[in-house]
Design goal:
Largest sheet: 4 strands, antiparallel
Number of strands: 4
Oligomer: single chain
Structural class: alpha+beta
Distance between the termini: 18 Å
Radius of gyration: 12 Å
């Protein structure tokens, strides 16, 4: 299984659309959604190894308007029939 992680992203007030757009330039991004709750965006990342995912998460943290991230490395997955 190719390493993947969900990254929950908290943004500054009114900066969510700008951060969401900036995520599109990150190579490992597979999907991003604006959400409601304690975090503002959830992103699915994928890379050839876990250390590369770490590098991409550091890229996310450098985006202007990002306040906090929570990373969840996927260790097992299932697909629907």
């Amino acid at each position: 299984m190719t390493p993947q992680a969900y990254v929950l992203i908290k943004t500054q007030v009114d900066r969510t659309p700008e951060v969401f757009k900036a995520l599109q330039s990150i190579e490992a991004l597979r999907r991003a959604d604006i959400i409601m709750g304690p975090y503002d965006i959830i992103a699915l990342m994928e890379a050839e190894d876990a250390s590369k995912i770490g590098d991409f998460i550091l890229e996310i943290r450098d985006i202007s308007g990002v306040l906090d991230t929570l990373s969840c490395l996927i260790v097992r997955t299932t697909t629907s029939p």
